[in-house]
């Protein structure tokens, strides 16, 4: 831990929109929880803002730096969609999967949540459910 950074105790409740999609941020103690209806759009918006600020597109090293800064401040941040956990970053996180995929062990991704939160995955799920319902309806009609 970096001795120059004090542990933070945060409290907050914020509702915003990112490109028209709702995002809710709540915080209590050392826990920050972000729920984005459109996780992909939210992350792309963050990336665009970081690129505009620094002039370079953020990468794995930047995520590792963010995770380290959160951990040093005693903060843990969770990013979720309304129905799936996506990633936990910061204090108390130690993930070999995060080290391999994201470049820092201080980030724990939920692979299933990441896949299911994407709009493409939701479209595939919707098409699959519709196909199964149509198939089930056809089987029931055929039996009558």
Describe the SSE topology.
Blueprint (H helix, E strand, L loop, with lengths): L9 E9 L2 E9 L1 E6 L2 H16 L5 H13 L3 E5 L4 E6 L5 H7 L4 E3 L1 H7 L1 H25 L1
Parallel strand pairs: 3-4
Antiparallel strand pairs: 1-2, 2-3, 4-5, 5-6
Give a verbal description of the structure:
The protein has 144 residues and is an alpha+beta fold. It is built from 5 helices and 6 strands, in the order βββααββαβαα. It has a 6-stranded mixed beta sheet with strand order 1-2-3-4-5-6. A hairpin with a 1-residue loop joins strand 2 and strand 3 (31-36). The relative contact order is 0.12. The model has no long low-confidence stretch (mean pLDDT 81).
What attributes characterize this protein structure?
6 strands; alpha+beta; 47% helix; six-stranded mixed β-sheet; single chain; 5 helices; 144 residues
Low-confidence stretches: none
Tell me the Rg in angstroms: 19 Å
Number of helices: 5
What is the average of the pLDDT values? 81
- Spell out the helices and strands N to C: EEEHHEEHEHH
The geometry reads as: elongated
> How many angstroms separate the termini?
70 Å
Quick description:
With 144 residues, this protein is an alpha+beta fold. It has helices at residues 39-54, 60-72, 96-102, 111-117, 119-143, and strands at 10-18, 21-29, 31-36, 76-80, 85-90, 107-109.
